[in-house]
Structure to design on (178 residues):
């Protein structure tokens, strides 16, 4: 399979949830260290977010990383270097993002990593960590989220954007209670 074929398949990959895999934290650690080695002066912190960061949570088998930087100007300065470091992205998609930059790694036609570059200690940083930590510490909340994800994955199997948007109300209810 060529790189172009792998990317095309990864971009259009169906939403398929799998049971929690105990190796996901190790895969996160490996990628975090790889990023720290390449960007030691730019990355303030790198956190494991998303469902693969929540023990027991079914997930798309894609490791979500959130890299904290000093400013969006730093995030933009890393853009081309990340593209040369095994990540791909859409310039058009990122042009619509004001509070983060998004990148993807893939192999054999499957997404392997999503990298969200955000301002460290900014609103997005705190919101993503708050959501992850709530799912890690409140089992009933995690169970409700898992059930919602399963339902939405079956409804939006071919539409990643719709799947993500449909989870939005639940996510906001956790990070913006009351």
């Amino acid at each position: 399979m060529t790189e172009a074929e792998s990317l095309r398949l990864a971009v259009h990959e169906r939403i398929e949830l799998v049971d929690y895999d105990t190796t996901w934290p190790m895969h996160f650690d490996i990628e975090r260290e790889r990023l720290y080695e390449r960007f030691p002066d730019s990355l303030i912190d790198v956190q494991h977010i998303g469902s693969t960061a929540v023990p027991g949570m079914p997930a798309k088998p894609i490791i979500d990383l959130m890299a904290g930087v000093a400013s969006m100007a730093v995030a933009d300065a890393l853009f081309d270097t990340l593209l040369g470091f095994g990540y791909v992205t859409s310039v058009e998609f990122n042009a619509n993002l004001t509070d983060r930059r998004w990148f993807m790694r893939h192999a054999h036609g499957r997404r392997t990593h999503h990298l969200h570059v955000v301002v460290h200690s900014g609103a997005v940083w705190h919101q993503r960590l708050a959501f992850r930590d709530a799912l890690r510490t409140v089992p009933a909340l995690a169970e409700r989220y898992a059930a919602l994800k399963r339902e939405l994955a079956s409804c939006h199997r071919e539409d990643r954007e719709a799947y993500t948007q449909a989870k939005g109300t639940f996510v906001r209810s956790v990070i913006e209670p009351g």
